[in-house]
Structures are given as C-alpha cells and as structure tokens.
Design a protein that fits this description.
The chain has 17 helices and 16 strands. The protein is α+β, with helices and mostly antiparallel strands. Bound molecules: histidyl-adenosine monophosphate (HAM).
Length: 443
C-alpha cells in the first residue's frame, strides 16, 4: 500500500459515484418529507463517553477515538442515536411532540472492511420521539418500506424482519433467567445467527452458569416461531403481560397491513439487535434472498433519553439505512439509474468573440442552464469535437456574422438540426425547446 492511498474501509467518490450517492440521498429526502419528517444535523465528533456508555460493547470496540488538543477524549460518531437523544433532551420542553426528524450523514466504525461494510459509511436515520404506542413503530416501518419501494424494491426483493425485545424478556423470565443475566443472554441470542452453536452455548454458560445447553435449546425453539399466531400463542402463556404484548403484536401488524407494507414484513425472533438501548419492537431489513448484510436496522429505545439526561423521560423509536449495502442491493437488481453528468449547453466562439461569449455564458448560467466552452483558444472544428464529447444537448455558435446581427446559431447535437435566434430571446427559446424535446420537434 502506498502511504498516500486512501485508508482501508474509506471510499473516494468521483463524480459518477457521487451522482449515485446523491440519488440515494434524494430518495431518502423525498420520502421522509412525504411522511412529514424534518431534516436536522449534528456534529461528527462527540465526547467519547457518549458512545462508551450508550451504544453497547460492540460499537464501543469499533470506535475511531483520540484525544484532542484540549485533552478531551473524543470519537468520530459511529451512529447517530445517542446524539439525537441528547439533542432532544436539551430541547424537550420547547419541541412540539411527536418529534419526527431525519438525518443523512457520514459515520465511522473500525470494522473489518468487507462487502457492504466499511469504516466510513453513510446512514439515513429517521426517528420519532414522544409517542409510546405501536402507531409510531408502524409509521417508521412504513417509511422504511416506502423508501425501498421508491427505489423500485418490492417484497420479493427485500424483507423487513420484525422482532420484539419485550417478547424476548418475557420468554427469558419464563426460563428463570435473572435480570442481571439478561443483557448478556440477549447479546448471545443476537450473535447466535453469525456464530457456531458451541460459541453461543459458551456465551450463554458465562451469563447463566451450567445452563448454556438447556437455554440454547430453548432459544432455538423460540427462534423457530416464524409467524404471528405462534408468537401470540406462546405469549399467551406468559401471564397478563404476555397477553398485553400479544395484543401489541396484533395491533402493529394490522397497522402495517393498513399502511400497505404488510407483504414486506416477516415476523422473525432471531432479530434481537446488537445495540444496548433497544426496549421494544426491533427490526432489520435484508435482501429477500438472504444474501448480504443488513440494509437497515432499528427499533424502540424508550429509556435512552432519560438515561442521557437524567430527568427527561420520552419514548422514542427509529431506524437507520446504510448506503453501502443498499447500493450493492440496487446495483445487483439493476435499479441504479444511469447518471448523465453533462452540461446543457456548449458555447462555440471565435477568439475575437470570446468576451461576448463569456458574457453570454454568464447570462445562460444565471438563467440556470449548465453551460461550458473550450477554455483553450481553438478552431471551430476542435470546439465542435469538444462539444460532442461533452454530452451537451445544444451547441450555441457565436461567430463574427452572428455578433453583427446580435444573434447565435443553435445546433441540436442530438438531431443535428440548426436554427438562428436573437441573443435576447435565447433563454426563452432554450426553455421552449427543452419542453418540446429539441429544436426539430418544433418543426
Ligand atoms: P445499526 O444496525 O448499527 O443501527 O446500523 C444501521 C445500518 O447502518 C446497518 O443496517 C447497515 O446498513 C449500516 N451500517 C452499520 N455499520 C456499517 C459499516 N461498518 N459499514 C457499512 N454500513 C454499515 C444503528 O446505527 C442505529 N443507531 C439505528 C437507529 C436509529 N436506531 C434507532 N434510531
């Protein structure tokens, strides 16, 4: 590796990659606005403690962190949720509830770079704060599904695997797993999808001495509950709290049907979510084929804001979509548009008309038309060649004769047709032609 190469896991975005990224961001923004979410932004560098205490062990071990010149321990943000929680707590009294906010930004995790995983990546985060009921969870999941649909992904392309931490806690209570052992047990369940059974049993044994194998077998059974009826039936054996939660499951899935995204949802208790702060319904989106890493993940985190602020108790839920896995998924299904990065107009002029040409280009640019010309003095032939290469739709030709008559020649580089028009009316004409599909379409 050359010492000046990009660092492992970091990407450069030349214009075509940048255009592709902007396409993702445009869809995120458009759909979030359709759901009445408002955009916000936050710092990229934060106090290290914000993540050490709030994000959970896995993210804490992946932090990019350092001491700044003022001796503060700081970290590049690996995720947005703790920052959002702090921001909301500080403004809790003045913000009308529910708060529906979204952000698009870069995040950093020191992970092993691989397909779909980098050390710097973008996330679209959407969060809904101040509403404890399943309607908020449904609104968020509907937003996630709607984003997928807007990209052209359907239920045979992606699935949103829906699970619930409350359900797991009720099941663990039934297995007599004490509260202290709960976080480590949930963590072992979360990781069990990616690990060998022996490793999971070992983690379960550490959290629940001598019970690893027994708990592992029970967990496998519970993870096998793959539809709502089975989960409801099992919950109904967990007392009043279980019955209440069964009702919540039914309400949530009814709402999702009503939102029109039921077909993308798959009930799946193998999802637990690695982050420490989740408290209720949780979900992750994957390609339906099962290939690749998660496209998105989220859930309810009702206690995080209180934990960060000490006094402000607000229920919250949200999710994030990552740009890397999403781009891979869209590319594999041919759903990334071909981006044309070309000027609208290419000005061609003789050297004596250069000043006039520059004035004209400034006028056209102010009118919102992307306009370019050959920076180096060159003959008309070379300039026509450059115009063709640039991908511009129209060449605007300004020669001696045209200047005398305060006019220009406009050549449609797609159809080859040409027209002379007064400089005064050029902007209007271009707008007409664009609307009509070119000069020739008017003839
Ligand atoms: P997360 O599951 O850690 O959740 O990340 C969400 C998504 O970000 C993942 O599904 C993945 O697409 C992407 N992602 C995560 N790490 C990487 C990586 N190293 N490289 C590429 N993409 C990655 C959260 O971050 C939660 N804070 C989401 C949330 C918002 N929960 C509530 N509100």
């Amino acid at each position: 590796m050359n010492k000046f190469d990009t660092l492992p896991g970091f990407r450069e975005f030349p214009p075509d990659a940048c255009a592709q990224r902007n396409h993702l961001f445009r869809v995120f923004r458009t759909v979030a606005r359709a759901f009445d979410f408002q955009e916000y932004d936050v710092p990229v560098v934060e106090p290290l403690d914000l993540y050490l205490q709030k994000s959970g062990e896995e993210i804490a071990s992946q932090l990019f962190h350092f001491e700044d010149k003022g001796g503060r321990k700081v970290a590049l943000r690996p995720e947005l949720t703790p920052t959002l929680a702090r921001m909301i707590a500080a403004r809790a009294n003045s913000l009308p509830k529910p708060v529906k906010w979204f952000n698009i930004g870069e995040h950093f995790r020191y992970e092993r770079p691989q397909k779909g995983r980098g050390r710097s990546f973008y996330q679209f985060n959407a969060d809904l704060i101040g509403e404890p009921g399943v309607d908020a969870d449904a609104e968020l999941i509907a937003l996630l599904a709607s984003i997928f649909e807007t990209f052209g992904l359907r239920s045979d392309d992606v699935v949103i695997r829906l699970s619930d931490r409350v359900t797991w806690v009720l099941f663990l209570d039934q297995l007599n797993i004490c509260e202290d052992a709960r976080p480590a047990t949930l963590d072992a369940i979360d990781k069990s999808e990616r690990r060998k059974p022996e490793q999971t049993i070992e983690s379960l044994n550490q959290a629940n001495p001598d019970r690893g194998e027994e708990i592992f077998a029970k967990i496998q059974e519970l993870k096998g509950l793959k539809n709502l009826d089975q989960i409801v039936q099992k919950l109904e054996t967990c007392g009043d709290q279980g019955k209440q939660r069964a009702d919540d499951w039914k309400s949530l899935t009814n709402r999702l049907e009503a939102h029109g995204c039921g077909s993308m949802i798959q009930v799946d208790l193998s999802i637990v979510r690695g982050l420490a702060y989740y408290t209720g319904f949780v979900y992750e989106a994957f390609e339906a084929s099962g290939e690749g890493r998660a496209l998105a993940g989220g859930g309810r985190y009702d206690h995080l804001i209180k934990k960060l602020s000490g006094n402000c108790d607000l229920p919250a839920a949200g999710f994030a979509i990552g740009d890397m896995t999403l781009s891979d998924c869209l590319a594999s299904k041919n759903l990334l548009p071909r981006y044309v990065i070309a000027p609208d107009l290419f000005l061609i002029f003789g050297e004596t008309e250069r000043d006039m040409g520059l004035r004209l280009s400034s006028h056209l640019r102010k009118a919102g038309h992307s306009t370019t010309y050959s920076l180096k003095p060159s003959g008309f032939g070379k300039q026509f060649k450059d115009a063709g290469k640039s991908g511009a739709r129209y060449a605007i030709i300004l020669g001696e004769d045209e200047v005398k008559q305060s006019s220009v020649k406009v050549k449609d580089l797609r159809s080859g047709s040409e027209e002379t028009c007064k400089i005064q009316s050029l902007v209007e004409k271009i707008e007409d032609w664009d609307g009509e599909g070119g000069i020739s379409a008017q003839e």
